[in-house]
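Homework help board

Subject: predicted structure for assignment chain

Our instructor gave us this sequence and asked us to write out the predicted structure in token form, then describe one feature. I got the tokens but I'm not sure how to describe them. Can anyone check?
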Amino acid sequence: MDVDPAGERVALYRGSQTGCREYGLVLEAKGMPYDVIELDGDWVLLVASAAAAGAREELARYAAERRVVRDEPPTVIPFGGAGLGAAIYAGVLLITAYCAGIQWLGMDWLASGALQPLAGAGEWWRAVAALTLHMDQAHLLGNLLFGLGIGILAARVFGPGLAWASILGAGATGNYLEMLIAPSTHRAVGASTAVFAALGLLAGFSWRQRLNLRERFRYRWAPLFAGVCLLGFLGAGGEHVDVLGHVLGFATGIALGWTYARARVPRSRGYALQLGAGGASLGLIVAAWILALRHGVPAP
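My token output:
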């Protein structure tokens, strides 16, 4: 409908002021000039005649997109007990740090539990024990704080027992892969591989949940992109940073989280699963340290 007698402007929309402003923002995002005027009691959105065809096309695309029924990711009901799982995580790291510091049982805990590529590849327990060791107080504090934060988030999604069992399993798998492919001079300790496994677990889980939604590419892949950005920001750089371990832990966490989302894990919200998974995790750590000390290095 033409509203300009000279034919220089045409009306694309006539209705409420809110509707004109909404469609005007669509055109503004594409760099198309427009005007909104009041005419005969209505509000009218005007564009130049030369730009009318392109403007109509943009508004038609916008209207079609609004008509698409958008799926919502499955609702996640948070689990309780996240604080208990976090407390046990902190306790394991602090107790191990104390035992290593006093060289309990006359053993060099750091040498006995650290990752040792090639020769140590058959000593699977190192992949678990190394996750509980740290070089100094700053190293320990960093992994405590970051691990508690991301671990609590994971525990609310999967339950504390299953979450920490998954974090331990993915972190240990990342460590074992590192023992197989790292240079022979490489040594590493620290919970950071498990921490980045937890980050990957959440990113992979959320990514797989959104993958089939009828949404734009960037929305469906946003969790994975966000996880990779955090990995690059927090897990790389620095002379003594175990970048390989961080990447492997994150990758194994992504794979596990993706699998959980596809299999709809956890299927049960009962206590048995959480207690069983949590107890198995603690048992694995204890077994790993028994083997590490049995085959370990005496304190100098």
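Reply (TA_rk): Your tokens look well-formed. For the description, you could write something like this. The first strand starts at residue 9 and ends at 15. That's the kind of observation they're looking for.
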